[in-house]
Amino acid sequence: PASVVVAIDGPSGTGKSSTSKAVAAKLGLSYLDTGAQYRAITWWMLTNGVDVDDAGAVAAASGKPVIVSGTDPSAPTITADGADASGPIRTPEVTAAVSAVSAVPEVRAAITALQRDIAAEAARTTAGIVVEGRDIGTTVLPDADLKIFLTASPEARAARRGGELKARPGDAGVDLEATREALLRRDAADSSRKTSPLAKAGDAVEVDTTDLTLEQVIECVVTLIEDKR
Ligand code: C5P
Question: What are the recorded Gene Ontology BP terms (predicted)?
Answer without folding.
Answer: nucleobase-containing small molecule interconversion; pyrimidine nucleotide metabolic process
